Amino acid sequence: MKSFKFALLPVLAALTLAPLGCGHSDEEMGEKQRQIDKLAADLKASKALHDDDQKKMADAQADQDRLRAQLEQAGLIGQKSKDEMDRLTKALADYKQRADQLEKMEQRYRDLRARLEKLAQVGVKFVVRNNRMVIQLPGDILFDSGKDELKKDGKEVLGQVAEVIRNDKDLNARDFQVAGHTDNAKYPAGGPFKDNWLLSLARARQVLLFLITPATDKGKPALGGGLNPKKWAAAGYGDTDPQAGSMETQNADEMKRNRRVELVLQPNVDEMLNLSNIK
Question: Is residue 243 part of a domain?
Fold first, then answer.
């Protein structure tokens, strides 16, 4: 029995040292597991990289969309700026043209005033009132007190004024109003004109009729001013528009100044200049 026991020990030792069956060893299994773990890690890293790339692509697309929107907006703003610049350029050109026209008009009025200055010795004045160009004719030169019949000296003065207007192409094509004015003295009861309103209107009418009557040949007594009747109208203001004193209070000198007839140049609608510049 002893010998058998010793004989069995080598066999048991061999069985212990020999591989069990035909499976993989622990080392091989460990290697396979490490490869699997590496593949899993690589897959996870690849997925993370893919997700990161997708996010970057989405961000890039969003940036591109924002950039396109900004460019479109910039383009729209640029067009607005261009339109605004074009509008301002046109406005500036229109303003310059307008300024040139107004300067020519003012110069023409200055020329007219210069031509009328020769009539200053008989009391004719060139003034600007209420932003209107006005040729003032003293009533005492034109009419006797309380009457509407033009005096000889008055006709001569009106003839000279009409000649200046008639020989100026632009002025002769403009509209004028003949405005009659009186002082504040109460019109006498029983007079033919009833009141100062009618007296001033009657005088304005007489001046208008003379101005639109055909002019005579040079050297002969004046028949009229020869002006276009379509361009002239008459109005009576009575004592409501004094140029001196007030309606209630006027001294002798102020009353004399207020007795007048004015030839008022009517502005065109498109004329918005300040005539005070030519004072």
Answer: yes
Instruction: Give residue 198's domain range.
Output: 102-278
CA distance 41 to 271: 89
The string of pLDDT tens digits covering residues 156-205 is 899 989 988 888 888 888 899 999 999 999 999 888 999 999 999 999 99
DSSP for 99-165? HHHHHHHHHHHHHHHHHHGGGGGGT-EEEEETTEEEEEEEHHHH--TT--SPPHHHHHHHHHHHHHH
Number of domains in the chain: 1
Query: Is 0.70 surpassed by the pTM of this model?
Result: no
Average pLDDT of the residues in 109-121: 75
Any idea what DSSP says for residue 275?
G
Contact yes or no for 126/135 (Cβ under 8 A):
yes
